Description:
A hairpin with a 2-residue loop joins strand 7 and strand 8.
Amino acid sequence: MASRTRTPNVRAAQWSPNGxxxxxxxxxxxxxxxxxxxxxxxxxxxxxxPKAHYKQLQETLEAGELLEPxxxxxxxxxxxxxxxxxxxxxFTHWFQPLTGITAEKHDSFYAPTGDGNAIAEFAGKELIxxxxxxxxxxxxxxxxxxxxxxxxxxDPTSPAFILENPNGAxxxxxxxxxxxxxxxxxxxxxxxxxxDALSTVAVRAAQLFGxxxxxxxxxxxxxxxxxxxxxxxxxxxxxxxxxxxxTLFGAKPPKGxxxxxxxxxxxxxxVLACMLETEQELAKLGVPIKTRHNEVAPAQYEVAPVFENSxxxxxxxxxxxxxxxxxxxxxxxxxxxxxxxxxxxxxxxxHNNWSMxxxxxxxxxxxxxTPHENLQFLFFISAVIQAVDKHQQLLRASVANAGQDxxxxxxxxxxxxxxxxxxxxxEKVFAAIESGSGDAATPQAYLELGASVLxxxxxxxxxxxxxxxxxxxxxKFEFRAAGSSQSLALPNTVLNxxxxxxxxxxxxxxxxxxAAGESLEAAVLEVVRAAYAAHKRVVFDGDNYSDDWHAEAExxxxxxxxxxxxxxxxxxxxxxxxxxxxYEVLSERELEARYEVLVEQFTTKLNIEGETAASIARTxxxxxxxxxxxxxxxxxxxxxxxxxxxxLDELLDELVERIFALEAANREHPEGVDPLDAARYVQxxxxxxxxxxxxxxxxxxxxxxxxxxxxxxxxxxxxxx
Length: 721
Ligand code: ADP
Ligand code: MG
């Protein structure tokens, strides 16, 4: 077997079912001694469980079997004792319903004994299964109210942890959430299923290349989270921020990010203090934060952990968002996770770094040292190209939400067109494989590809393309179109599932050729060539922001699904239903449920924005303008005053008219229509009516005296740190 490259930070330990990210703390970092202290890690389990039970637990988990009741009781007891020693009084099954955020329902460890005392109880059955009264979670019609019960089931592959509050602590047990009929009501179940699907096919592919030791392939996620921190005083004076998470009004400040003085600038002290505490809290929870810095917009920042397996990484990402928001409040700050809190100012995304690695420590998207390894590398890369091209619309749908509609395609985030950036070197290699010969500009070595002599591939190719939605960055793909507020479970579920399909198909193709007598090298090269030739339209290394690209993408037949209602129907397209059911990730009913929930969320969010905008305009902004008008009326008549009055008169008329129009749009929602038509209604009627009110209001903000204007302005919110 060929020797394997091992990336230093890709370690089997990190991927062991129970290990989570533990064990990879950088001990040179301050705070390393607290890393994972609130996590029921496999190290803690080893310490706390009798040897035989610990071994039995590991074996059960590895086999993916159900826990025996006696073992479950033993684990529950150890977990309870550990948690209570750390001050926990309650436990909760921690799950991820289709709301996109996490849910918890706390139960006390203590049960009354009937004689006025209480004893601490926590049995295996409470660890393994819970029954939250789940009738008010969105289910997309999966669960009729007469069968309203859902249940939560322990996910032992994501370690339990303790959340602290100044007045107590509670144990969180990551769980999956399903209906009694066994359908997934959450984002975790499909993610786990997609990881299994990918593992099965990728192990088969790795074996084809001679890796007999690999028994499991893990997908990995390393998310880069962008967010804003603003002073809470301003937040509480802005009903729009409180209710919708974004400002519905606000004139562009005289200074934006034009001076480029914020990005990577030194971090303001209060903000840094907040970041440091956030990171400490996350360290205790075993979330390995690696980098922090200022982002492009004023008051915008980014935080990124070291990557982990997709399941743990997505759970941890939910914790990152939660802890960021909690800790900010301790510093008089509020953390905004909306994709576009301030119009005209860069919005926030979440880059989703994604890769695949074997349990023997080999990153399948990392070029190797030998031609053989590179053959395998090119095989997996071409599978990803094929998958992304074939399911580009689905990938786009996986990041669609109301906030994203302000961002994607707005010259700060990738366009709604999905394309792949490979880097010049890699593109050259594929081009040479495709043509069977290099051109004059191609390095000599590439010319001999046909003879199965592959060049040493460039590692971590230096070039970057910040405008690409899906960029190869050395040993992983960076999916850059995710939104800052969203759970990463769905995008990763989609990536894993579509990659599984492509790997499966390409493996079949290679096997067929080998069975017909071709050498492995020749077979793989031919399969890679054919896949690239069929799907290279999705490869683009130019400026994704340019108009030229939009025209060219259209000519290439790539989809440009600009708004959420254009994208979401792809969740239930036949091609999606086909791949998701073939790989047993989501059934048609489960897909429809997600589609319905997401469409409804879009409509509801925009409804709320419409109502909030109308209310703010009529009850806060309009009165301020009228008051200023009255002041002008009372003032001595002179030419200047008359001019100001004239200007204001016109704007006031316009404002009133547009408020009435918005109120009408808010009232006149079509009844009893298809949910997608309801979404289209808010998108095409309510949103423009809101924008119309805003444009007059923002002009008024510039002329009404500052002390009369009831809302804090962008120039305050964004620059006071
Ligand atoms: P750079 O972008 O400068 O190359 P890194 O390679 O350290 O920086 O990674 C940037 C982001 O990519 C980090 O959030 C990291 O966790 C993530 N990342 C690195 N390797 C992987 C991988 N194999 N799988 C998933 N994410 C990864
Ligand atoms: Mg970034």
